[in-house]
Amino acid sequence: MRLLSVIEGDLNRLLVFELDDGSRVESVFYRGDTLCVSTQVGCSVRCIFCASGKNGLIRNLTPDEIFCQFKKASELFPIRRIAVAGIGDPLLNWKNVMEAFWRFKGEGLKVSFYTVGHPPHRLKELLLLPHAGVTISVHSTDRGVRRFLMPHAGDLRDVVKVLKETLPLMSKRKRKKVSIAYMPIQGINDSDEEVLRIGTLASELGVSVTLLYYNRVSNLRPVSLERYETIFRKLRSMGVRVTFSTRFRKDRIGGCGTLIIDREVAA
Length: 267
Ligand code: SF4
Known about the structure:
Layout: E1 2-8, E2 13-18, E3 24-30, E4 34-36, E5 40-42, E6 57-60, H1 63-74, E7 81-84, H2 94-106, E8 110-115, H3 120-127, E9 133-137, H4 143-149, H5 156-166, H6 172-175, E10 178-182, H7 192-205, E11 208-211, H8 225-237, E12 242-244, H9 247-250
Parallel strand pairs: 4-7, 7-8, 8-9, 9-10, 10-11, 11-12
Antiparallel strand pairs: 1-2, 2-3, 3-4, 5-6
């Protein structure tokens, strides 16, 4: 595995790796201390808003390939946190991700996860790990809309069931680190009713909402900034804790959903 290229964004640094079989994956160094790592080459969930899943899954990364993204990046940047939020879903390469997780922990790193929450029994295991945060992609409470946005993300009812069973087993401090992700997209999941249902779900579960701003990688359109702010305020008015997309997540380089598996780079 070798580091092919480091691409400078306005805020982020995008690292392109070539694996021994010629496949490529990407990591992102952001916020001055965090590395977002990939866990798969491609992704079988195939979210329509994400460049990483466009061509489906090619293969799982090995524990070494996941860990080495950190090793190589740490020669260039000071890394204290790992976000398992790059290409792939950690629950779908669970055994290898777990091995890498314990190696990250052995280096004293704080490790957080992004997942669609499928399969549910692994979500439960994930929640009970000594993680620094788990964000679960919900995006819509409507089954049809969620399936349209994330065709292979499983059933939200299973995710909710696991959360209801598992959150009470966690300490209050740990529960605060669990959130559901909501990314409003114009004309699809940005209605007042949807916002209300997302807020109600978060309230019932006692978790926060990570409100993402869509980085345009397809024909879908992000909501206007005014609408984004209105949604933020509406959720807050329901008593829900809400974090919003930082400028790092919105950067043209390395922003959420923009990582791809076959970027042209000068090797
Ligand atoms: S958003 Fe995550 S789960 Fe969905 S296709 Fe992209 S990498 Fe896969």
